[in-house]
């Protein structure tokens, strides 16, 4: 798919992977709109990147409806949706972990929000000559990390949804559905898990997203994720134990 001269919406675009992807896609000749609920951070990012922005909480159903109205009115040629916004809690399951409340927040952002926004934007995306939906999941989408247990659950759910959506839309639309599965990335959200020391820079994800869309690679593995997935398919128990070594 050609990924120049497109209008692109990126959720969670104020920092991290979203920011890097907005920068790269804008430099490649695309019109980019970044979305976040953090107005101050979003406005600063938009000024730095010289891109459009809309303040919206994608976990709020009414805010999503308002967002879609604005997009239809001002960006009617929108053809690429990148569901990137995410949240995760570093903790371990067990007595007193409060896993239900943590998982509610994680599922609202990491699963329900992209599912909702995608469904609302399908009519607009279907109008375009070619279009794409890009869901950013994680290497924990195919096996869990014990210190991100319910985040792993949410990303696994989004992975499954992405596969079903890809098959469904391929039957009667021109919309292509991509999934991005990064390994550890150095962002503000990963400081508690060693992102600053061991994480890849966000630009690596942005470059892989651009190349993956350009080459119609529907499952985009970033960093160590590709090898981790191959290891998991070959020997699941061994791969999961290695992935979680020293954490349980």
Top keywords for this entry?
248 residues; alpha/beta; Rossmann fold
Give a description of the structure.
With 248 residues, this protein is an alpha/beta fold. It has one domain (7-243): Rossmann fold (3-Layer(aba) Sandwich), CATH 3.40.50. The chain is 50% helix and 16% strand. The protein has nine helices and seven strands. The protein has helices at residues 16-27, 39-49, 61-74, 99-126, 149-172, 195-198, 202-214, 225-234, 236-243, and strands spanning 7-11, 31-36, 52-55, 78-83, 131-136, 175-182, 219-222. Strands 3-2-1-4-5-6-7 form a seven-stranded parallel β-sheet, sandwiched between helices. Helix 2 (39-49) links the parallel strand 2 and strand 3 (52-55). Helix 1 crosses helix 7 (202-214) and helix 4 (99-126) runs parallel beside helix 5 (149-172). The longest helix has 28 residues, at 99-126. The protein is globular and about 50 Å long. The termini are far apart. The mean pLDDT is 95. This is SDR family NAD(P)-dependent oxidoreductase. InterPro entries: NAD(P)-bd_dom_sf, SDR_fam. Belongs to the short-chain dehydrogenases/reductases (SDR) family. Pfam families: adh_short. One of its GO terms (molecular function) is oxidoreductase activity.
Number of domains: 1
Strand order of the largest sheet: 3-2-1-4-5-6-7
Q: So how many helices?
A: 9
Into which percentage range does the β-strand content fall?
A: 15-25%
GO molecular function, one term: oxidoreductase activity
Pfam families: adh_short
Protein name: SDR family NAD(P)-dependent oxidoreductase
GO cellular component, one term: membrane
